[in-house]
Amino acid sequence: MRGGSATPSIGSGAPGPEASRWRVIASGFTFMPVSLGVSCAVAYGTIFYSFAILAPAIMADFGWSSALVYGAFSAALAGGGLASPLMGRLIDRFGARPVMSTGSVLVSLLLAALSTVGTPFAFVALQFLMLFAGVLILYDAAFAALAENHGIGARAQISVITLIAGFSSTLFWPLTSWLLASFGWRGTYLALAGITLALTLPVHLLLPSRAKIAARQMQASGRFAPELPPLDPAERRRAVIIMAIAFSCGSFTIMAVQAHYPRLLLEAGFGAAGAAFFAGCIGPFQVSARLIDMVFAQRYHPVRVGTIATLSMALGVTVLFFLAAGPTAAILFAVFYGAGQGMAHILWGNVPLALFGPKGYARLSGNLGSMRLLVGSAAPLAVALAGEHLGSGAGTALIVAVAGLGFLMILPLLRYVRSQPS
After folding, report:
1. Alpha-carbon distance 360 to 280, whole Å?
2. How far apart are CA 306 and CA 376, in angstroms?
3. Phi-psi region of 63 (alpha: psi -120 to 50; beta: other; left: phi over 0)
4. Interaxial angle between packed helices 139-150 and 66-94, expressed in degrees from 0 to 180 and rounded to the nearest 10
5. Which of 2, 76, 181, 362 could, after both became Cys, cross-link 92 (CB 3.0–4.6 A)?
6. What is the architecture, at CATH level 2, of domain 233-416?
7. CATH homologous superfamily for 24-215?
8. Which residue in 110, 97, 95 sits closest to 201, CA to CA?
9. What is the pLDDT along the chain (422 residues), one digit of tens a residue?
């Protein structure tokens, strides 16, 4: 009915679309997704972002080569890829609370152990084990916890997690730099171990148990969205394969840019300060895209949103060919690539949930995450080898080609978009 009050009277029916939108957004900012967002920010900060700060100090201390130190991290990413399916199976079987709590303890112990390393073998092995355990407390595990608790209605909560965790680099790069200057790299690893244990373990211990979730779902009639009808097995298999390729292309693109973008800026004629500034411009557009998703995109199917985001990332990396044009090109890259990257982790969590529902979500998410991590771990080396053997533009061309393939591969997923049953 048009022209009436925007606020429906009691018993008059559903609220208007504007009220529904803000109700969905507000539902995301509850204790569980906010606390998981904080724990993911800490986990990414201590596992990933701290490495970029500590690696040069470790190389200087031991005289190790960059190939050894950064190769250890690439091997660790592969370890995370191998562990990801196991994470999914464990959460499907035992629930998120015990699995993520165990992950908090293991990662903290491994960070502490890194403060004692004295040989290359110990360093490589501990990095590998830390990423192997790290998947138990990173995005895929957190998304599985929300799917377990909220079913297919977890979309807004997943967006909240990525929004909060998006500030991880902003917090942990300066924090790790200060710790390094104050306590050295060994003391920093000990501090990071304590931070991880103190800020992630309580969050994971407070997650609801399987019994509490089941009891709440039985009592809350109509609160959880109904299950989607299952796809035909052959169609499901086809959709999963398409999704795996599309997501892996996105992971390759992101890992390649993270590893090579500052170098590309320097080669294009930007000074060190300018390269650092324009590389930092990606972050604000990444967070802005996540805010836009929270406020405006919740009404649209995640595959449709993903199509736009993947195209944005592909357009952004195409601008890499034109960096020599100066700051305008660097800003355009930050806008388009930053928006696409900002949406990527949301889509990796939301698209499988929207297409297949929460049943078996953790296992599916773990399998998809495995392929993403394995493909992404190859990106820095593949782009470097392409540039070394085929010319400087070949590495950029490889990034653009893979990003374009990711966009083309997500298009067939549109045929699987189905309305939620009423």
Report:
1. 38
2. 19
3. left
4. 10
5. 362
6. Up-down Bundle (1.20)
7. MFS general substrate transporter like domains (1.20.1250.20)
8. 97
9. 344 434 333 344 445 555 555 455 555 557 788 999 999 999 999 998 888 788 888 989 999 887 788 788 888 888 888 899 999 899 988 999 999 999 999 999 999 999 999 999 999 999 999 989 999 999 999 999 988 887 777 778 888 898 888 888 778 878 988 999 999 999 999 999 999 999 999 999 999 887 666 665 555 544 445 555 666 788 888 999 999 999 999 999 998 887 788 778 888 888 877 877 887 788 788 888 888 887 777 778 889 989 999 999 999 999 999 998 999 999 999 999 999 998 888 889 889 888 888 888 888 988 998 899 889 888 888 888 888 788 778 989 999 999 999 999 999 999 888 644 43
Domain ranges of the chain: 24-215, 233-416
Give the type of residue at 164. I
How is residue 227 written in tokens?
Answer: 């299950």
d(CA 326, CA 101): 47
**Encoded tokens for 26:** 């507000």
3-state DSSP call for residue 214?
helix
Q: Which residue has the tokens 């990106």?
A: 379
